[in-house]
């Protein structure tokens, strides 16, 4: 069964472009993971400092592999001083239909 989630983060004042650049780089790395089915980055239409990332992995094992990647660790370390709260908020989803 696929593993889906979304992650949100709000860039601190003056940090939007740096966060955006980090997400662009992360997207390339995550999309290259064999278990990644979807990795899409959005900003809110009325708040471009707020990022919304939609992710789907083939299954729980693919998600666990994703969580162990070096590029994920580097990204999470890099955003500590760039986003509110020092990291993203992750919400796991369950498919209804």
Automatic annotation (TrEMBL):
InterPro entries, sorted: ABM_dom (IPR007138), AI-2_Isomerase_LsrG (IPR050744), Dimeric_a/b-barrel (IPR011008)
One Pfam family it belongs to: ABM
Record-linked SUPFAM superfamilies: Dimeric alpha+beta barrel
Bilayer-crossing regions: none
All residue ranges annotated as the ABM domain in the record: 3-91
The protein's name: ABM domain-containing protein
Organism: Gluconobacter japonicus
Species lineage: Bacteria, Pseudomonadati, Pseudomonadota, Alphaproteobacteria, Acetobacterales
């Amino acid at each position: 069964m696929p593993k889906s989630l979304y992650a949100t983060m709000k860039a601190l004042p003056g940090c939007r472009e740096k966060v955006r650049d980090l997400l662009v780089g992360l997207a390339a790395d995550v999309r290259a993971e064999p278990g990644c089915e979807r990795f899409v980055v959005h900003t809110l239409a009325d708040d471009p400092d707020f990022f919304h990332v939609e992710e789907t992995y083939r299954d729980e094992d693919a998600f666990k592999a994703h969580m162990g990647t070096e590029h994920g660790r580097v990204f999470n370390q890099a955003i500590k001083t760039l986003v509110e709260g020092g990291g993203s908020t992750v919400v796991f989803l369950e498919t209804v239909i």
